[in-house]
Amino acid sequence: MLTERPLDFVDARGRPFLCAHPTPRGHGHPPQLFIYQPALEQVLRDGVARHPNVEVLLRHECLRLRQDAGGVELTVVGTADDSVHRLRASYVIAADGGSSLIRSQLNVGYEGRTYEDRWVVIDTEMIKPWPDHDRLRFHCDPARPAVDCPTPLGHHRWEFPILPGDDETHLTTDEAVYALVARYGISRDSIRSLRATVYSHHVRFAARFRVGRVFLAGDAAHAMPPWIGDELGLERAHLVGNSYGGACALRLALDTPGRVDRMVLMGPGGIGTTRSLPTAGLNNLVNYYGGDGPSRLKLETFIRQYLVFNAADVPDSASDERYRASIDPEVMAAPPLRRPSGPNALRTLWKMDFTRDRRLDRLPVPTLVLWGAEDRVNRPGGGCMLADRMPDCDLYVVANTGHWVQFERAELFDRLCADFLAGRR
Ligand SMILES: Cc1cc2nc3c(=O)[nH]c(=O)nc-3n(C[C@H](O)[C@H](O)[C@H](O)COP(=O)(O)OP(=O)(O)OC[C@H]3O[C@@H](n4cnc5c(N)ncnc54)[C@H](O)[C@@H]3O)c2cc1C
User: Fold this and answer.
1) 119 in the same domain as 220
2) What residues contact residue 205 under an 8 Å CB cut-off, 6+ apart?
3) The whole model's pTM is what?
């Protein structure tokens, strides 16, 4: 596995104009991960081989699936000898790829679309490293954009769109592969071409992931290109945000109401902030990166004294995780939630208070506001301000709860949120 590779967007002459370095944020998984699929599959096969009660049937094809109340029966044919086997199982996970036969047999649709643009993906073995071979680069060259991507175990991948007039078959030949990468200064001595394949991007979801005792997984259940938002066809989405996240959700809804379906805000920031002095909790939060800088003690004090109603409910691990995330070098370089300063400070403060924004009075997005009655960071009175002003706003003020409704009253939050987002209110 390769993780945390710097990534650059470069222009046609290779000059970077946007650079980022993804680093872990305490989510329990790397923010970015490159795998070499044959190596991963080998690890999985070795793992399975450790269990004598698991039999792997390679070169076998499932032709039919039937299920009844007690289980599932599979008809499987050995492709080497035409042997026919009937297997019975309590449950089946069908991970048989994008063209899933099982999905068809279950009569489950595969909704979405396939892009017309076709791309060639080239996997190579690196023989001689070149400068910056370990950076992920997007070559934004209008003539032919390219993805230039390090992959583990001394491999490297390129992806190029197929342009009008290109001969697809030719593009997968070694000759074409070496010509395509030559524009980035990569010569035949540097790489050995392993595979070049033409593919299309699919954005598709199975209408259901489960039918009775059969579950669809992997590409059989969903396939998508590695980008999101507009390209995924997600024109509208529900937004759920707490505190600063709630403020971001509200800002997005005010700026682009057509893109937001429904919105759940938990103790959002920026409500009535110019109408009273900041709370002690907010001051504490804003000062976190000031003075002697962040510390585990400062963070734990903030959580236990200001963030929640009942300090005993917060496990140490929550403070550990939050502290680790708070000292991420990228976050430290541009700490969030700074007090506005300079000549435009007042103007900025004014703009940050949503109750000064007239668009609030006609925001058509159905909104659920949940606010802890004992919130010591953002005043619970903000809930009434929103409910009074917004045309379609439900408000719940939750007793014996601080700033983290979703944590402190998780069950209630889940129920209200699920009902509201499903349109049951
Ligand atoms: C060219 C290319 C490049 C890609 N690059 C990336 C990438 O960089 N990163 C990334 O995350 N994803 C990438 N993907 C997508 C990735 O390969 C798939 O998302 C992933 O392989 C899906 O795994 P899967 O197990 O669901 O399906 P598959 O890998 O398609 O496996 C399905 C398996 O089921 C078997 N099967 C099918 N029908 C039957 C049957 N009736 N009976 C028995 N067996 C059956 C097939 O033989 C196959 O072995 C790429 C895909 C392509 C085509």
Assistant:
1) no
2) 110, 111, 112, 221, 222
3) 0.62
